[in-house]
Amino acid sequence: MEQFYTIQGEGANAGRAAYFIRLGGCDVGCHWCDVKESWDADLHPRLSIESLVAEASAHSGRNVVITGGEPLMHDLGPLTRALHEAGLQTWMETSGAHPLSGEWDWICLSPKKFKAPLPEVLRNAHELKVVVFNKSDFAWAEEHAAQVGPDCRLFLQPEWGKAAQVTPLIIDYVKQHPQWQVSLQTHKYLDIP
């Protein structure tokens, strides 16, 4: 769908330079999604792996985030192998609703209630980032935290449109449950892509 060089705004790698490759196609359908235009893969041109790697390699940052849409709707093995061969780190943000493919240096699992993450993605996640829309999301976050590995980092992130209401709840929750961390969409505060 699009590609751009920016600063990672969320989660464990927030603040680091990263090249984003946003793939078209998503069947999860979150009502609060901020890139609904990514849902229909047929609306976006197909690009070669070679051109994606060349564009990513043209920047001094060595981190590439594969996102969507839902990136795991695609076989990501050939793309991630080519990125690694070019000396780039591969990071992914996924709902985990599709089988895991690709070679990953960092997997950010952001599960959605509309389509459950698969156990293999839960087991391989480096980071669990739960978007908090309402109070019931805390119990839902704990259900998923119980399924990830012991070294997986845990983040609670306010849904942007409800940040004023849920951020104080997240702060209180993290203070009571310090295994969690707060994640903010810093790219939105910085007004960058």
Q: Report the mean per-residue pLDDT as an integer.
A: 94
Number of helices: 6
The first-level CATH class is given as Alpha Beta
- Please mark out the parts with pLDDT under 50 across 5 or more consecutive residues, or reply none: none
The H-level CATH homologous superfamily, spelled out, is: Aldolase class I
How many β-strand runs? 8
Principal-axis shape equals globular
Strand order of the largest sheet: 1-2-3-4-5-6-7-8
Order of SSEs, N→C?
Answer: EEHEHEEHEHEHEH
For the terminal residues, how far apart are their CA atoms? 14 Å
CATH architecture: Alpha-Beta Barrel
How large a portion of the residues is in β-strands, by DSSP E? 15-25%
Sheet with the most strands, sense and barrel status: 8 strands, mixed
Quote the CATH topology: TIM Barrel
Fraction of residues in H or I helices: 25-40%
Question: How many structural domains are formed by the residues?
Answer: 1
Radius of gyration: 16 Å
Q: Helix/strand/pairing class, anyone? A: alpha/beta
Family: Belongs to the radical SAM superfamily. 7-carboxy-7-deazaguanine synthase family.
EC number: 4.3.99.3
Subunit structure: Homodimer.
Pathway: Purine metabolism; 7-cyano-7-deazaguanine biosynthesis
